[in-house]
Design a protein that fits this description.
By secondary structure, the protein is mainly alpha-helical. Among the domains are: 45 residues, no CATH class; 98 residues, Arc Repressor Mutant, subunit A (Orthogonal Bundle), CATH 1.10.10. Strands 1-2-3 form a three-stranded parallel sheet, with helices on one face. A three-stranded antiparallel sheet has the order 4-5-8. Strands 6-7 form a two-stranded antiparallel ribbon. The protein is elongated, with a radius of gyration of 32 Å. The protein binds glutamic acid. Glutamic acid binds next to loops.
Length: 471
């Protein structure tokens, strides 16, 4: 049988780390067995669903390269399918209309809690609904959960799980507004979409026995289930859409790249010996459900930074450039085409953990300097600096080739000429071309900033000093 997995987010929040992990494990599992991976958007909870979240999910999965083989399927487009099955179930007597009012249900619940009983529906309408069959009273549809026996399944991560049917109630499959519920749609879709392996968060483990009962009642095959344990944040709180855990888009916007994000998320709950770094190819080959941990895993931002640094400096430069281009486009940063991005990245990325960190350190490559905003600029407004800058301007203007070695040579000449140290000249130039006292290697910076930009910024500094020089 062909392996088929799915990622089926409810778009009631952004795509966060836990969601990506479910998607990644499902995707890797399907890849490993040459099966297929489908994307299903579970958008029947119309009050909480938001189109921005759908876009966020699609964008995040695409950016990370978690491409789906089928879909995205939207449950909201499949309402007719659900409706027909509910009608069939009512006809077959495996579901029933429940007319109990909210007040009655609240009272029931309150009394059960008072009597220290597990709150659940008492199945009143399972017996009496016939009487009200033709009335206009609003109703929900409930599944006739078996009254006896045990539901058992062998969770691929957590082992054997069983629960007595006495513990389960007749859960709602259609709300009073006619909309089918999560537990119903998920079952119908897993069945109709031939899902063989359901890999999802541990928070769904309680739903599984109900879903299995429903599948059995419909004579549908039961997939295998794997419930992945929770992810905790730094303070030990479960990550979830509701506690506003960080969306993947925010990581992307900070310049974390797919290889690093996936590697990091893969290891949140899965291990292979003591290996930390996994290429996508290795992930596909080595991933297995047996090594998924039963215990919760903990967010570790430092590790993500470390992995991002590692991948930024070890992936082919072409790959890095393509991520960098997407990153700059998203941030509306436009670098002039005369800047040698490839070598700039090659030379300086090693100092940074994220693309955001990189780009914020080199703002002067794509934005002009406003000398009026430079800290302590006044202290550079001296006669000697003016002379040095004019000398530099002239010498660099006459340079026909823009090589790092020639640049360094000219810097050395100016040191000799003015009897100052290298640092003195370098700082002065740094202020002029970057507005900062510190930058990486000055001849490299001059080289990458290019002749025109260099001369025009030195010229601006000369003008500024002339205007503000203390006499
Ligand atoms: N739609 C559910 C959620 O976002 C997942 C359902 C499932 O995987 O069965 O939590």
């Amino acid at each position: 049988m062909k392996v088929k997995t799915r990622f089926s987010p409810s778009p009631t929040g952004c795509l966060h780390i836990g969601g990506v992990r479910t998607a990644l494990y499902s995707w890797l599992f399907a890849q490993k067995y040459r099966g297929s991976f489908i994307l299903r958007i579970e958008d029947t909870d119309t009050k909480r669903v938001n189109n921005d979240y759908i876009q966020d999910i699609l964008y995040g999965l695409n950016y990370l390269g978690l491409h789906w083989d089928e879909g995205p399927f939207y449950q909201s487009n499949r309402l007719d399918i659900y409706k027909n099955i509910i009608l069939y179930m009512l006809k077959k007597g495996i579901a029933y209309k429940c007319y109990c009012s909210q007040e009655r249900l609240d009272r029931l619940r309150k009394n059960q809690i008072l009597n220290k009983e597990k709150p659940r529906y008492d199945r009143k309408c399972r017996e009496y609904c016939i009487v009200l069959k033709k009335s206009n009273i609003p109703f929900v549809v409930r599944f006739k959960n078996p009254l006896e026996g045990i539901v058992k399944f062998n969770d691929m991560i957590r082992g054997s799980i069983h629960i007595s049917n006495h513990e389960l109630d007749d859960f709602i499959i259609q709300r009073s507004n006619g909309m089918p519920t999560y537990n119903f749609c998920v079952v119908i879709d897993d069945w109709k979409m031939n899902i063989t392996h359901v890999i999802r968060g541990e928070d769904h483990v309680n739903n599984t026995p109900r879903q299995i009962n429903l599948l059995n009642a419909l004579n549908a095959p039961v997939p295998l289930y794997a419930h992945v344990s929770m992810i905790l944040d730094n303070s030990g709180i479960k990550l979830s859409k509701r506690n506003q855990s960080r969306s993947i888009t925010s990581y992307i916007n900070e310049g974390f790249i797919p290889e690093a994000i996936l590697n990091y998320i893969l290891r949140l709950g899965w291990s292979y010996k003591d290996q930390e770094v996994f290429s996508i190819h290795e992930m596909k080959n080595l991933f297995n459900i047996e090594n998924v941990s039963k215990s919760p895993s903990m967010i570790n931002d430092k590790k993500l930074l470390w992995l991002n640094h590692y991948y930024l400096n070890s992936l082919p430069i072409k790959t890095i450039i393509s991520y960098f281009s997407i990153f700059c486009k998203n941030k509306k940063i436009f670098l002039d085409t005369d800047i040698d991005i490839q070598n700039l990245l090659k030379e300086f990325l090693c100092h940074h953990n994220t693309l955001q960190e990189f780009i914020s350190s080199y703002v002067y490559f794509y934005k002009d300097i406003n000398l009026y905003n430079v800290d302590n600029i006044q202290m550079y407004c001296s006669c000697i600096n003016l002379k040095i800058l004019k000398f530099l301007y002239k010498k660099f203007f006459l340079l026909t080739c823009w090589y790092k070695s020639d640049i360094l040579c000219l810097l050395k000449q100016s040191i000799k000429r003015f009897h100052v140290c290298f640092k003195y000249i370098a700082t002065l130039i740094r202020i002029g071309i970057s507005g900062k006292k510190n930058t990486p290697n000055i001849s490299s910076i001059i080289f990458y900033i290019g002749k025109n930009r260099f001369l025009s910024r030195i010229h601006n500094l000369i003008k500024y000093i002339q205007l503000h020089m203390l006499v």
